[in-house]
Amino acid sequence: MRLQLLAAALAASISAPAFATDIEVTHWWTSGGEAAAVKVFADSFNALGGDKWVDGAIAGGGGTARPVIISRIIGGEPMGATQLNHGRQAEELVEAGLMLDLTELATKEGWRDVIHPVSLLDSCTVDGKIYCVPINIHSWQWIWLSHKAYKDAGVEVPKNWNEFVAAAPALEKVGIIPLAMGQQSWQTSGAFDVLLTGLGGTDLWRKVYADKDAKAAASDEMKRVFEAFGAARKLSKGSTVQDWNQATNMVITGKAGGQIMGDWAQGEFQVANQVAGVDYTCLPGLGIQEVIGTGGDAFYFPKNDDPEITKAQLKMASMMLTKEVQVNFNLKKGSLPVRGDVDLSAANDCMKKGLAILASGNILPDTNQVLTPDTTGQKNDLMVEFWNNLKITPADAQARFVKIIEDAE
């Protein structure tokens, strides 16, 4: 009997992976839709065999997670892989030599030939070397509208921002909040940028954020954007939720008419079994400027001294860009795939709108790709303060905004 047990143990040890490696993966995907999406990555990686995805979700969104992630890497306690937004967030970590160089893998697998737009890969590139893998295209440029809310108020679902504002009194009359808004600074700041693009236009956005043009930030065109943003904050009276997905749930349940939020909101509608065009409407560019941003999420892999971990990191990076994983992940996440050669016949109406705009070339970079984390932080702080303090006038907020743009690098 003992010999049989020893034989069984030996057989098990031979069949088991010889170098099973745990890879801790940090990210801030904690909502229902996000959890469903990240499970695609975890399951796909674990199915490769030999290594294990150890989930390190950090609640509170990117604003909470990024300082924790960066502190651990700088402090010598790196995770195996981490989500960040491609752009300038990891610039200093790369320059300090703390991130794994993925150039050889990217060249071998032809990432530059399949990633679209290629600017996503450029945002992962520092001094000609690639340090992250873009995994989706996320755009802020959307407003999501509840069919139930407008039906209960007895008005038609708006087709653009002007109709949205005009319909607000009808919603308020029956106790529905016109505009759901969470209390985190990045949410109000993102909503401001959507208004900037929708009402001010893409040229103004580029002048202010890409060119750091303080005169454009002080212009009459920008004045109208601040005035519209000032009027919008009154439409969110009664929206006291904290997290973005809680605000999305207000739209799903008909407690709010709409929410300005990125296309990741689609994941929440999907988890709630709501159908685009039936239960909710999505308007890119506020129904005025059909444009999408081409920001999104990317994974970086901190350097370590263990060759088995490095091997697993490269395997994970490769897995994230495979066709099947790109389709399955992004259908759950509500984002667009970074590969331009995948089958998205299962896409819903909102994703199809995004794909059509992407194909048209009417795109913008994300603010994370053109602004430093410091400038972004200053802008976020200003916008949330303005949103929550009606004593601050649009003119006052614009003056402070001009100063931020003047000092931006």
Descriptive report:
With 409 residues, the protein is α/β, with parallel strands linked by helices. It folds into two domains: 20-138 and 295-359, Periplasmic binding protein-like II (D-Maltodextrin-Binding Protein, domain 2, 3-Layer(aba) Sandwich), CATH 3.40.190.10; 142-293 and 365-407, 3-Layer(aba) Sandwich (D-Maltodextrin-Binding Protein, domain 2). Helices cover 52% and strands 13% of the residues. Strands 2-1-3-12-6 form a five-stranded mixed sheet. Strands 8-9-7-10 form a four-stranded mixed sheet. It has a two-stranded antiparallel sheet with strand order 4-5. Helix 2 (32-47) packs across helix 15, helix 10 crosses helix 11 and helix 20 runs antiparallel to helix 21. The model is unreliable at 1-19 (pLDDT under 50).
- List low-pLDDT spans: 1-19
The whole-angstrom Rg is: 23 Å
- Proportion of residues in extended strands: 5-15%
| Strands, total number | 13
The oligomeric state is single chain
The CATH level-2 architecture of the largest domain is identified as 3-Layer(aba) Sandwich
Q: Please estimate the helix content.
A: 40-55%
The domain tally reads 2
The CATH topology name of the largest domain reads D-Maltodextrin-Binding Protein, domain 2
The main pleated sheet reads as:
5 strands, mixed
Give the termini separation: 73 Å
Output the strand order for the largest sheet: 2-1-3-12-6
Count of helical segments? 21
Alpha-beta classification: alpha/beta
What integer is the average pLDDT?
Answer: 92
Output the CATH class name of the largest domain.
Alpha Beta
Classified in CATH, the superfamily of the largest domain is Periplasmic binding protein-like II
Shape type:
globular
